[in-house]
Amino acid sequence: MLVADFSRVLAGPYATMMLADLGATVIKVEGPGGDDTRTWKPPVLTDPEHGDIATYYLSINRNKRSIVLDFTDPDDLATARRLAQRADVLVENMKPGGMAKFGLDHASVAEHNPSVVYCSISGFGSRGGAHLPGYDLLVQATSGLMSLTGEADGPPYRAGVAVFDVLTGLHAALAISSALRHRERTGQGQLLETNLLSVAVSALVNQTEAYVAAGAVPHRMGNEHPSVFPYQPMPTKDGELIVIAANDAQFRKLATVLGDPAMAEDPRFATMSDRISHRAEIEQRLLARLATRTAQEWYTAITEVGVPCGPINSVDGGVALAEELGLEPVVRAPDAAAVPTVRNPVTYSATPPSYRRSPPPVGADSAEIRSWLNG
């Protein structure tokens, strides 16, 4: 399967990397300046041959080939059109209407390639929001996510990663897979459109449903959960520990292991709704018990009885935990660059992801791709 990747930055490249991991041949089309993320540094990986490479770019461009095409150059534009005509899948995230200027929009491509699965990604859709630039931070702000993030009496905060770019990429990859299955049955391609704001409204799940179904407008609660308690960091004798009791059985186990089984028998705390109504009273009892032992001691004891809890790691700690649990989070392609990247998170019993190529230098495959397209 050939994927023509006309996308840049994060959402589109993440989607095409997911497809590449599963065996697709992905040709990454870059302008003369390369993908924007090549300049988003530090952090960098220092390479003797290519200098400092932005780790942001490395994180989303594994298993691809790169060709540089200048759409203002007639020969390059002709090459881009030939690529689109041969592609099984085309992914782009220009502003809506941007590809039409070059005869690379869905209608133009499908005229010569009717079976193409064409996926357009934008920030705010192709209707009223077509003129708006699609940056994740804007969508975190405008969707309501930032209004939910931070302390109740503090300012709104963004998430520490571009969550809606990543989720949009995942939705796009899923949609492409579904459209390819449809094409397999019918021979028909189709146009897929998704945008960061629609994904954000969907991805806020219980928070947006609270509003659309019950008229309840969610608000910042720091690390607390509006519907589950306890479900937050809690201080111990020497540091904080995430403690979760997502149902009544877990709460009974938690009360017992903390040495206060009567807490679970108290009618004020019997159900989740009761615990939410008496959050302050329970919290004081939990904190009093947790203060008697260290975070590690409580982590061992609480985990042993099947109640969810865990430390608050930095990113290196998260990677170390994945390694400790045998998840093998870091992979390297068997090429000369052997750049370390993060493993595809899905395990398949019959068709596992493969890691064939390190993220390519800009235009690394231009000559090979041009020769193939002209052949």
TrEMBL record:
Matches recorded under SUPFAM superfamilies: CoA-transferase family III (CaiB/BaiF) (SSF89796)
Listed GO MF terms: CoA-transferase activity
Pfam families per UniProt: CoA_transf_3
Keyword Transferase carried by entry: yes
Tree of life domain: Bacteria
Keyword Transport on entry: no
Keywords: Transferase
PANTHER family per UniProt: SUCCINATE--HYDROXYMETHYLGLUTARATE COA-TRANSFERASE
Protein name: Crotonobetainyl-CoA:carnitine CoA-transferase CaiB
Organism for this UniProt entry: Pseudonocardia ammonioxydans
